[in-house]
């Protein structure tokens, strides 16, 4: 059981990273999943990170980061597209629950990104509210193509970066938390086969390569 929740963005990121290393190596500890932990959380919660990720069934946050009950405040949508409800949930995590870290989690073979690429290429539209998801992913697909990139990893990384930018700039609450150093926002791209994540964007936290996650992006000016 975790002794105390991380108090800083760096501590939170290191704890999350250690859990992902254990999962990828096949040595998970499955912490904070016993009856005592369940009982201890009945009256209050204090997660150490907000995890905003894709709804993909292969992306179960507590499993791939080897965490347990009360550790992560999880928000998930197809293609990690963000609207008012998502922004409000993230703001709740950082301002009410005091989470020092917000993670945007994308992954390879993302169905939402693939559907958007097909729609852009073919000029087709999707039925129902799936069209709204595709419309929100479209700017990322167009930006990737405009940069002359064509690999799946390129589209995923660009979309994660765009989501980091969107939530950081659209939410004044989150922007103020990052500016004050109380919270950091990190974008990760998860590899389904390997079980490991890599950094593609960060705001409010320097992430040196020795942390074990490959950084594909230069930190933002305010990181």
UniProtKB/TrEMBL annotation:
Function of the protein: Catalyzes the reversible hydration of carbon dioxide to form bicarbonate.
Native species: Streptomyces echinatus
EC main group: lyase
Entry keyword annotation includes Zinc: yes
Binding site for Zn(2+): 54, 56, 107, 110
One Pfam family hit: Pro_CA
Gene Ontology biological-process annotations: carbon utilization
MF terms in GO: carbonate dehydratase activity; zinc ion binding
EC number(s) from the headed UniProt entry: 4.2.1.1
Catalytic activity: hydrogencarbonate + H(+) = CO2 + H2O
Domain of life: Bacteria
UniProt protein name: carbonic anhydrase
Cofactor note: Binds 1 zinc ion per subunit.
Cofactor needs: Zn(2+)
Alphabetized InterPro entries for the sequence: Carbonic_anhydrase, Carbonic_anhydrase_CS, Carbonic_anhydrase_sf
Record-stated family: Belongs to the beta-class carbonic anhydrase family.
Key words of the record: Lyase, Metal-binding, Zinc
PROSITE patterns for the chain: PROK_CO2_ANHYDRASE_1
């Amino acid at each position: 059981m975790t002794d105390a929740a991380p108090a800083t963005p760096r501590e939170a990121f290191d704890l999350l990273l250690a859990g992902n290393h254990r999962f990828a190596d096949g040595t998970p500890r499955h912490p904070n999943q016993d009856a005592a932990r369940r009982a201890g959380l009945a009256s209050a919660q204090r997660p150490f990170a907000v995890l905003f990720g894709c709804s993909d069934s292969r992306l179960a946050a507590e499993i791939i980061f080897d965490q347990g009950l009360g550790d992560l405040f999880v928000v998930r949508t197809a293609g990690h597209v963000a609207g008012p409800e998502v922004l409000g949930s993230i703001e709740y995590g950082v301002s009410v629950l005091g989470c020092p870290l917000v993670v945007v989690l994308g992954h390879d073979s993302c169905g939402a990104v693939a559907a958007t690429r097909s729609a852009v290429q073919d000029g087709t539209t999707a039925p129902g509210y799936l069209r709204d998801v595709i419309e929100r992913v479209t700017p990322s697909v167009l930006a990737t193509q405009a940069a002359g990139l064509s690999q799946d990893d390129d589209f995923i990384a660009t979309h994660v970066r765009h989501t980091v930018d969107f939530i950081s700039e659209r939410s004044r609450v989150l922007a103020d938390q990052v500016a004050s150093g109380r919270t950091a926002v990190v974008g990760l791209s998860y590899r389904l086969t390997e079980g490991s994540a890599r950094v593609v964007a960060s705001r409010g936290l320097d992430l040196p390569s020795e942390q074990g996650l490959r950084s594909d992006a230069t930190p933002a000016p305010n990181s």
